[in-house]
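Table S2 (text version). Query chain:
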Amino acid sequence: MFTGIVTDIGEIVSFTPTAQGQLHRLRIACRYDQSTIADGASIACNGVCLTVVASGVADGRDSKQSTWFDVDAAAETLALTTAKHWKVGTKLNLERALKIGDELGGHIVAGHADGIATIVSREDLPDMARFVLSTTRELARFIATKGSITLDGVSLTVNTVADVTFSVLIIPHTLDVTTIGGWKAGHEVNIEVDLMARYAARLTEMTA
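Corresponding structure-token output:
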């Protein structure tokens, strides 16, 4: 489980297709302490929970980003998320798995992306940026004004909703410490709807 509070921005340094293209091995550089990354650990990469299969420290790299870890992106991940667009040099929002006793600064996030949202527009305001996004009708029914949403692994509050579009307001700090600062119209992002909204919808369906 995660909270949607990004703790580092990683960069893909190698991308190797394996198993007839059905599985991709990614090596991601980051600033985490390598000694704290165990094989089998879960790390959310742009909101997608991936399992560490190896880690190490690269000689000669920037000391601020010398750690690397390997993960495998399977066919379903490549089909349902923006991982299909990832390549060497792609920057990713990273979050380590939640530990018992950690501060829950965002909301409960599973790291299981539900699909993709597309940025319709970006408006840079004096103190923040406003993004309007669109998604599928299936996912839009779980999005509500003032509700929580996870976009590329970042826990955000929904500002407005209109049919299959919704908007979010991003403060300068979030723009600075995540990849959101580089978003623009036409950009695709991973979306995970609020678990509570999904369960509430399911209960409503069962009692209808």
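Notes on Table S2: The chain has a mean pLDDT of 91. Helices lie at 75-80, 137-140, 172-177, 195-207.
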